[in-house]
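DM from R.C. (forwarded with permission)

"hey, sorry to bug you on a friday — could you get me a structure for this? deadline for the figure draft is monday and I only need the backbone to look sensible"
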Amino acid sequence: MNLKKKFLIGYAIAAVAALLAFEYAFWSNGFTYLEKQSAAGYLTQTEMLRDILLAESRSEGIALEEKLEAFAEEYGEAYQIRITIIDDEGRVLGESDGPGPDMSNHLDREEVQRALKGESNSIIRRSATFGLDYCYCAVPLREGNFRGVIRTAIPMEELRNMDDEFLRSTLLATAILLLLVLSLVMYFRKYVSAMRAVENQRREFVSNVTHELRTPLTSIRGFVETLKNGAMEDPDRAERFLDIIDIETERLGNLIDDILLLSEIESKKDIPQKPCDVNEVIWEVTELLAPKVKPHVRLLFTPDPGVRPFTCNRDRIKQLLINLVDNGLKATEFGAVTISCKSTASHLILEIADTGIGMEAEQTERIFERFYRVDKGRSRSQGGTGLGLSIVKHIVELYKGAIQVESKPGEGTTFRVELPYFEKHSDKRYGNRKRSE
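My reply, with the result:
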């Protein structure tokens, strides 16, 4: 693990730890505040119960001691809290949860002692009997000669449940945060890898372009120097050297044209687009490449009148066909290069098959790479730039299509291009001119 990764992991751990510390501090202070607010509210409720007890005792005209047990039971059940009424000696005179006289002396309870001194107070502590946290509120109870305390005990279970729920929520939020951080890390790793791949491709492209440009330039310069150094005096040599210079110049021009075309296609510039008669485009391609057909090779195309027009940039489709057909002609010494075109309900399908030298499986996986050549010597001698099939692939992707290649050494190669129709065209059939092969 390198230093950068260690730093990132350490930073992530520190960030999560800081978040957990902040959450804990926030909730701890918040929980303390809730406890205080709850205790204050419960104390006010206890004071109201005392006032109600005194008011009822006075209105009914009975002694306070006679009403304590019934009052504790009635209001304890009504408010679902525990009410205990204690005299100044710690004896329980009224208890909502059972017979008060049988209960232990409560004089040692802190809240009771403070209430007997005249202080209304509340204390939160755990009950050894019930095993729960309670808020004990005690207020002075005085009437005539009676001195005592009315105390309420309210369970803090709901508040504690909030504490547990917060802990679970915090852990869940932390887990989600960690997953989010992990996802972001994975995303940025992929992004960085993609950027590195793009950068590597750029460097490789620049390196290949530089090499491809330098080769013809070196050849041109060498023959120019030879001519200047006296070869011009020999007409036969001079003419041969000038022919080579002309070939290398054409090759240089073709390379520059292909680079510009590839750049234009990659920029997604594909206007104008209009319905195109693909059969007609194929006829134009066969006429254009007819001079390149070798003596023992035939270029075959039988138009299908059922082919529907395809909305596209006509020049793009023409370039695609030129590159594939030209590639087949270069690879074929004997036999034929066959072009076929048909429409399905959803796709335009083009196939270019040759009976040429073919390729191995590992070669077919790389033929769409820029500057990749199956046979470098053969490609250079025939003037190839190494960009033709890469241009084809980009044009196919421009129209959201797919291209497949099947090839066997010595048997030939077939390219199959499927381009989806995105618009409904009319059923008009385009006429096709009959031409001899």
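R.C.: lifesaver. Residues 31 and 163 are 8 Å apart (CA to CA).
me: no worries. The two ends are 66 Å apart (CA to CA).
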